Amino acid sequence: MSNLKTHKPTTPGRRGMTSQDTSTITTNKPLRSLTVAKRTQSGRNNQGRITTRHKGGGVRRFYRLVDFAFAAGLSAVVEHIEYDPGRSARIARIKDNNGKYHYVLATNDMAPGSRIESGEEVAIENGNRLPVKNIPVGSSIHAIELQPGRGAQLVRAAGNSAQLMAKEGDYAQVRLPSGEVRRIGLECMATIGIIGNEQHQNIKIGKAGRKRHMGVRPSVRGVVMNAVDHPHGGGDGGRHRMAKAPRTPWGQKTLGYKTRTRKSTSNMIVKSRHAAKRK
Predict the structure, then answer these.
(1) How far is Cα 279 from Cα 277, in angstroms, rounded to an integer?
(2) Is the pLDDT score of 98 beyond 80?
(3) Is residue 121 classed as helix, strand or coil in its secondary structure?
(4) How far apart are alpha carbons 178 and 13 in whole angstroms?
(5) Bridge partners of 132?
(6) Domains and CATH numbers, the chain
(7) Whole-number Å distance between alpha carbons of 144 and 163
(8) For residue 61, what is the enclosing H or E element?
(9) How far apart are CA 201 and CA 206, in angstroms?
(10) CA dist 63 to 47, 60, 88, 146, Å?
(11) 223 — phi, psi (to 5°)?
(12) Helix (H, G, I), strand (E, B), or coil: what is residue 165?
């Protein structure tokens, strides 16, 4: 398990700051053929209107073209473990048996020299990718497909894994990191193991400037605004307890308001991630 890097308290911002452990990264240079320039939109759509607030600035980044499909029948050797600015997980640069390079998500025990495979009957080992029907019940998996051949869509963040709970008919039941139990087709591919960089969630930002480097701009609370500027604003400087439900600057509810609009796969949910909260 990777550790977090602490800093000497030379300034107030450095006192509680922690950074990612980069000891597992074996190269600082990404493969140029697998990177593309990423232009930040600062939260604006194609009309130039802000659709996501508090975004802008940030450091320049290059997007890594991660292969979330990794076709069956391939075997590859891990050459490097790399940092990816576009995701929390580490990525592994691999070279397959055809001499082609790919980027894949790195598991917690992956290292240069490791060999991974993809196919119907490959070994049940960390990093190997195979159909859910051939994975033993109880296994930890990640990079799970929702539709065969489309590529991984579920469980792709640092330190995450899902558990294969059961198999019934043409589907398997998988418990996701959120607690939701969902049915996944047995023909869908998944990767064995837990994604690396588990300590990512424990990083302490330490100072406001570090957030600006990430492209996050400052936010002002609604309760300190005037009534004309925000539904939470106004008052005589007294208590800030709201009599009404919290809302956005445009009056839309922000708590208790359902934000999930795509419900075409609701019939695949066996147990909601909210089930434990309702008890």
Answers:
(1) 6
(2) yes
(3) coil
(4) 32
(5) none
(6) 5-200 (2.40.50.140), 222-279 (4.10.950.10)
(7) 11
(8) strand 61-64
(9) 14
(10) 23, 10, 13, 24
(11) -70, -15
(12) strand
